Amino acid sequence: MTNKFLDIIPPGTPKALFSKKVPQTAKPNSFKKGIIIFFTVFLGLFLLCHFVFSQAEVKIWPKTELLEFSETITVSVKTGDFDFSEKTIPGRFFEKIQKDQQSFSASEIFSKEEKARGTVKVFNKHNPAKSLSLIAGTRFLSSDSEKYFTASEKIYIPAAKYEGGKLVAQWTEAKIVAMEPGEDYNIGPTTFSIPGLVGTSYYYSTWGESSENMSGGINMKKKRISQNDLDNAQKVLTEKLLEEVESSLRNNISSEFILLKDALTKEITDKSSLAAAGAEVESFIYEAEAMASALIFKKTDIERFAQEHILSQIPSIENNEIFLKEKKLLPESLTISYQVESIDLENGQIILNLEFSGKVYSDVDEVVLKRSFSRKSLLEINTFLENQPQIIRSETKFWPFWIGKAPDEPKKIKIELELGVD
Q: Beta-strand (E) ranges in 317-361?
């Protein structure tokens, strides 16, 4: 069976009359919400800055007073420590020893002449056999170079002997020396004739033979050390060494010490040449030793004396709660000059005339000031500080800028002293 659906809406009736309307939800006001959040955060930051991070900063320029003094003090190696009451500061000796050597050329030129010398065997084969004596100074002539030599002493030559029916020459050794100086006479082994026997039966049966070279002959220009060379070497080296030992001593003294111009001595403690005057050498070594000694003292001891003297002369502040009783010295203002009255290096003592000055000021009691400034306005704080004769200027700032009074807590109040400006 077929189902039938009937349209019960009358013809001509608009469908909109029968459509279901869904209600619209209203959108939140985002701008209004943002304004509320902004002012909430702003108020929170305002309260945080006002009550938590608020602070006061007070700068104070105290009045300074320049004090000038002059005193005489003693620097002494016998003083073990700083003594203000005795006006004495400790001194100490600082020493430096230095050695040096230098090569110098010999300058004296002279002619060096030596004759060659050597030994010969002098043979005698005279027939009939007969001994022979030759006087000192007998000449010997070399067969190859024709150089003349002379006998250094008398020569005795025994007579020849027959051995096995043959005549055998006998000989003796003799010292001979060249007749002239020079290297030309340094000849090798050779035979010698004896010119003095010419015309006699001994000339052909007497001769000399050498088995070694003649030596020692020279004729040349050489150098040797003169006394002037030694004197010049001493002067050059000692002057150089004295400069070096002083420079070395100064470089090894710490910057914390003061070395006065005339508080230093230097001397040569040893000097010598490794060769004597007359030594035939091209050069020689000269050596020396020097010592420098200085009497020094610490710069800080001078400054300490000046500071203690200035502070000892400052009157105390009476009846003022915001200032400490004792005044203070402004360290940067301290100036010191001195003149040497005397230096006694033998006894290790220096007398100095000091001229020194420094600025002093009244230091504030921060605890009292912070307590006084608590919950005070800018006007009240500035008025209070302007009425203090020990203060020449002040400057107060609050943070944040809108707070009307200084914080109640002392730790939130910062006090700074501005020194060095009058």
A: 328-329, 335-344, 349-361
> What is the amino acid identity at position 114?
E
Report the SS3 class of residue 35.
Answer: helix
Over residues 32-86, the pLDDT tens digits come to 777 776 666 555 555 445 555 689 999 999 888 899 999 999 999 998 888 999 9
Question: What is the model's pLDDT at position 408?
Answer: 86
Q: What is the mean pLDDT of residues 256-285?
A: 95
Find the helix or strand (DSSP H, E) in which 222 lies: strand 218-224
Mean pLDDT of 163-184: 95
Q: Are strands 132-134 and 155-157 parallel, antiparallel or unpaired?
A: antiparallel
CA 228 to CA 313: how far, in whole Å? 66
pLDDT single digits (tens) 383-414:
988 888 888 888 999 988 788 888 888 888 89
Task: Quote the CA–CA distance of 275 and 280 in Å, as a whole number.
Answer: 9
Cβ proximity of 279 and 225 under 8 Å: yes
- HSE (CB half, 13 Å, CA atoms) of 343? 15
Query: Which regions of 255-334 does DSSP assign to beta strands (E)?
Result: 257-273, 283-298, 328-329
Helix (H, G, I), strand (E, B) or coil at 412: helix
Asked if 99 and 289 touch (Cβ cutoff 8 Å), the reply is yes
Helix spans in 179-327 (H): 227-252, 299-312
Structure-token pair, residue 419? 């020194």
For residue 204, how far is the Cα from the chain centroid? 85
Separation CA 23–CA 25 (nearest Å): 7
> Residues for the chain: how many in total?
422
**Residues 6+ positions from 368 with CB-CB distance below 8 Å:** 321, 322
Of 118, 190, 193, 206, which Cα lies nearest the Cα of 158? 206
pLDDT score at 22 = 47
Q: Whole-angstrom Cα distance, residue 406 to residue 401?
A: 11
Q: Is 421 helix (H, G, I), strand (E, B) or coil?
A: coil
Burial of 339 (0-12, 13-18, 19+ CB in 10 A): exposed
Provide the percentage of residues in the chain whose pLDDT is more than 90.
63
Contact of 410 with 370, CB cutoff 8 Å: yes
